[in-house]
Amino acid sequence: SLKMASDSPESLMTLCTDYCLRNLEGTLCYLLDNETLRLHPDIFLPSEICDKLVNEYVELVKTDSIFEPHESFFTLFSDPRSTRLARIHLREHIVQDQDLEAIRKQDLIELYLTNCEKLTAKSLQTLVSFSHTLISLSLFGCSNIFYEEENPGGCEDDCLVNPTRQVLVKDFTFEGFSRLRILNLGRLIEGVNVETLLRPLASLAALDLSGIQLNDVGFLTQWKDSLVSLVLYNMDLSEEHIQVIAQLRKLRHLDISRDHLSSYYKFKLTRRVLNLFVENLVNLTSLDISGHTMLENCTIPSMEEKMGQTSIEPAKSSIAPFRGLKRPLQFLGLFETSLCRLTHIPAYKVSGDKNEEQVLNAIEAYTEHRPEITSRAINLLFDIARIERCSQLLRALQLVITALKCHKDDKNIQVTGSAALFYLTNSEYRMEQSVKLRRQVIQVVLNGMESYQEVTVQRNCCLTLCNFSIPEELEFQYRRVNELLLNILNQSRQDESIQRIAVHLCNALVCQVDNDHKEAVGKMGFVMTMLKLIQKKLADKTCDQVMEFSWSALWNITDETPDNCEMFLNYSGMKLFLECLKEFPEKQELHRNMLGLLGNVAEVKELRPQLMTSQFISVFSNLLESKADGIEVSYNACGVLSHIMFDGLEAWGICEPHREEVVKRMWAAIQSWDINSRRNINYRSFEPILRLLPQGISPVSQHWATWALYNLVSVYPDKYCPLLIKEGGIPLLKDMIKMASARQETKEMAR
Question: Which residues form a coiled coil (predicted)?
Answer without folding.
Answer: none
